[in-house]
Amino acid sequence: MSAPAQIIELRRILAERFPRAQARPVAPPPAVQSTGVPALDELLGGGLPRGEFTELVGAGHGSGSAQVIHSLLRETAAQGRYLALVDGADSFDCAAVAPAILSRLLWVRCRQADEALKAVDLLLRDPNFPLVVLDLKLNPATELRRIQGTVWFRLARLREQHRSTLMLVSPYPLGSGVNHRVRIEARLGPEALQDTPEQLRNGLHFELLRAAPGTEDVRRLAATG
Questions:
Q1: Angle between helices 113-123 and 149-162 (to 10 degrees)
Q2: What residues form DSSP beta bridges with 91?
Q3: Is residue 23 part of a domain?
Q4: 26 burial via Cβ count (<10 Å: 0-12, 13-18, 19+)
Q5: Distance of CA 147 to the CA centre of its chain
Q6: How does the average pLDDT of the chain come out, rounded?
Q7: Stated pTM of the model
Q8: Which region holds residue 62: left if phi is over 0, alpha if psi is between -120 and 50, else beta?
Q9: Better-predicted residue by pLDDT, 129 or 26
Q10: Which of 74, 125, 163, 192 gets the highest tally of CB atoms within 10 A of its CB?
């Protein structure tokens, strides 16, 4: 008998023996949005948890965060969904993306962190964009240090109101109140310029720095489901 079937049978037996007992409700694992990067999806229990705030931390140039964004865009487009990318330093390489995939992208080009945060504020108010990526990876530290903590709490309220999924890409732990924080590192050799997108993704390594309560249970379910 499979594990889910055993759980159902156990609940039936308990309900028969203790009819007045109220079973404690068990929250189902959250729906996820696959990033298209197997190692990252496995770490997060299947992908970005929908309706939550995930931060991807990558120090320095060439950390691999751009590969994750491109992969997430391809995965989102393949599902017929839309992705809003708020580009804090106007660094996104649209020439590396097929036109059919770009048609599923709203690219907001900014030059300063405060412009990017205002754009995210507006996008999180629009239910037509349930997936928003805020890329502050290349913004100067002087700009990032000026971000007040109240900004993140306001974005959190907007995100919760519309159940939007927000992914922040940053050079160091930055967002307050994130549900998940993951460090990314690219271990690529000098021949990486000739690598295929799949080879580049396979060269990315991830470390879970922060996880919301219950993440371990979700990861176990994803591994056995």
A1: 20
A2: none
A3: no
A4: exposed
A5: 21
A6: 84
A7: 0.80
A8: left
A9: 129
A10: 74
Cα torsion angle, 68, 71, 76, 82, sign: positive
Residue 98's domain comprises: 31-224
**pLDDT digit string, tens, across residues 162-178:** 899 999 999 999 999 99
Could you tell me if 57 and 185 are in contact, meaning their C-beta atoms sit under 8 angstroms apart? Answer: no
Residue 79 lies in a domain: yes
CA 170 to chain centroid, in Å, comes to: 12
Whether 155 maps to a domain, the answer reads yes
Number of domains making up the chain: 1
Check residue 24 and give its pLDDT.
Answer: 52
The three-state secondary structure class of 34 is coil
pLDDT band at 6 (very low <50, low <70, confident <90, very high): low
Check whether 192 has a pLDDT greater than 70. no
Give the C-alpha separation, 40 to 21, whole Å.
40
Torsion sign, CA atoms 72, 73, 77, 80: positive
Which pLDDT value is given to residue 83?
Answer: 96
Residue 137 placed within a domain: yes
φ/ψ of residue 126, rounded to 5: -105, 110
Q: What is the CATH number of the domain that holds 189?
A: 3.40.50.300
In what helix (H) or strand (E) does residue 123 lie, and over which residues does it extend?
helix 113-123
